[in-house]
Specification:
It comes from Actinoplanes siamensis. The chain has three helices and no strands. By secondary structure, the protein is mainly alpha-helical.
Length: about 90
């Protein structure tokens, strides 16, 4: 039963850290975008975009970038957890 408590404690700390990181990045970016007229530029870019097959490359690039970010986060968590086990 003690192992489950460790897992819950670790999960709650990870969730709190991720929530803090997301809020620290998303809230200022959203405020900047809302006050800078970036939305108008994005709408104009979407209107001017041609429909010629570039959507798949953009989707693939976005998925690849997301995959790299998730892999980096998993790698950091694994390295941190390994270092914690060695200290004990």
């Amino acid at each position: 039963m003690g192992h489950m408590a460790d897992v819950v404690k670790w999960w709650s700390r990870l969730t709190a850290a991720l929530t803090g990181a997301v809020l620290a990045l998303v809230v200022p970016a959203h405020a900047w975008a809302a006050s800078n007229g970036v939305a108008d530029v994005a709408i104009e870019a979407a209107k001017r975009r041609t429909r010629g097959g570039r959507g798949f490359g953009f989707l693939f690039g976005g998925a690849l970038c997301c995959l790299f970010v998730v892999a980096a986060i998993v790698l950091v968590v694994v390295l941190i957890s390994r270092n914690r086990k060695r200290r004990r």
